[in-house]
Amino acid sequence: QLRPVESGGGLVQPGGSLRLSCAASGITSDGYAVGWFRQAPGKEREGVACISRSGGSINYVDSVKGRFTISRDNAKNTVYLQMNSLQPEDTAVYYCAAEVSYQYLCVYWSPTTQATWGQGTQVTVSS
Predict the structure, then answer these.
(1) What is the C-alpha separation between 41 and 43, in angstroms, rounded?
(2) What SS3 class is residue 93?
(3) Which listed residue, of 21, 35, 60, 115, carries a Cα 20 to 30 Å from 5's Cα?
(4) Strands, DSSP E only, in 8-87?
(5) What's the CA gap between 46 and 123, in Å, rounded?
């Protein structure tokens, strides 16, 4: 069973960078689209970045375009989220989700019940 595990969160100053990883056996080889979502205290979960099974299609929420980059390393069964120019409003728990449907996960930002989630990693941007 696919069990994504996130890592790479932490405390960073405004303007800093972090790279998150989402690793799971089969997450890249078995044909899953993978998305990064985040949830800040008191706010709804929002989709941040998403990548198709092949890596040929990528989508970002407007607020992170030009700052965040999603990528996948099939050899390592890992999907990455490189986050640059971090701002306090980026503070949240970041989750990765994997599912077969790119359309629901990455276009509608509405994972189905078939999506598999990681446990989350905290990102805090503060001086």
Answers:
(1) 5
(2) strand
(3) 60
(4) 10-12, 18-23, 33-39, 46-51, 58-60, 68-73, 78-83
(5) 15
R_g over Cα of the chain: 13
**Could you tell me the mean pLDDT of each successive run of 10 residues in the chain, 127 residues long?**
91 98 80 94 96 93 98 90 98 96 94 94 97
Question: CA angle, 81 as apex, 19 and 65 as ends, to 5°?
Answer: 115
As to burial, measured by CB atoms within 10 angstroms (0-12 exposed, 13-18 middle, 19+ buried), residue 44 is exposed
- With H, G, I as helix, E, B as strand and everything else as coil, classify residue 61: coil
- Give the separation between CA 98 and CA 117, rounded to whole angstroms: 7
In whole angstroms, give the CA distance from residue 101 to residue 10.
30
